[in-house]
């Protein structure tokens, strides 16, 4: 790994996944996540693994989740590996794509979204 990859992140670098994440890697995974939103709120975190800002926001969000007693069903999407799914999410929920992005879904509809430094656990709990 080069010096710049260490600082800014290599394109193939996979983040450490925390145990609370459920991955979205297929349309089936996305469908299940949306179905679960009919029972309780869920949140989808769209992450660009090659972006330093996205990685920083992800790490800060993960720390916030780990330090909270609030429980939320959290889904993780590597948007570079699964760009068609990222586009489908943007289309289905009529939300402009951003990265990083957190989309909160309840009863099959997006009820909140945030990007970059606005991403916070409070977006889900509202």
Automatic annotation (TrEMBL):
Transmembrane segments: none annotated. InterPro entries: BrxC, Thioredoxin-like_sf. SUPFAM superfamilies: Thioredoxin-like (SSF52833). Gene3D superfamilies: Glutaredoxin (3.40.30.10). It comes from the Bacteria. NCBIfam families: B_thiol_YtxJ (TIGR04019). This is Bacillithiol system redox-active protein YtxJ. The gene is ytxJ.
């Amino acid at each position: 790994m080069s010096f710049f990859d260490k600082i800014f992140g290599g394109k193939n670098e996979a983040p450490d996944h925390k145990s609370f994440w459920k991955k979205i890697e297929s349309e089936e995974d996305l469908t299940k996540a949306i179905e679960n939103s009919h029972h309780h709120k869920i949140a989808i975190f769209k992450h660009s693994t090659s972006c330093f800002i996205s990685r920083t926001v992800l790490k800060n969000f993960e720390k916030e989740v780990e330090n909270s007693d609030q429980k939320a069903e959290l889904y993780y999407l590597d948007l570079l590996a699964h760009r068609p799914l990222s586009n489908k999410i943007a289309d289905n929920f009529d939300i402009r794509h951003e990265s990083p992005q957190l989309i909160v879904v309840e009863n099959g509809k997006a009820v909140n979204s945030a990007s970059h430094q606005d991403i916070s656990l409070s977006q889900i709990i509202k």
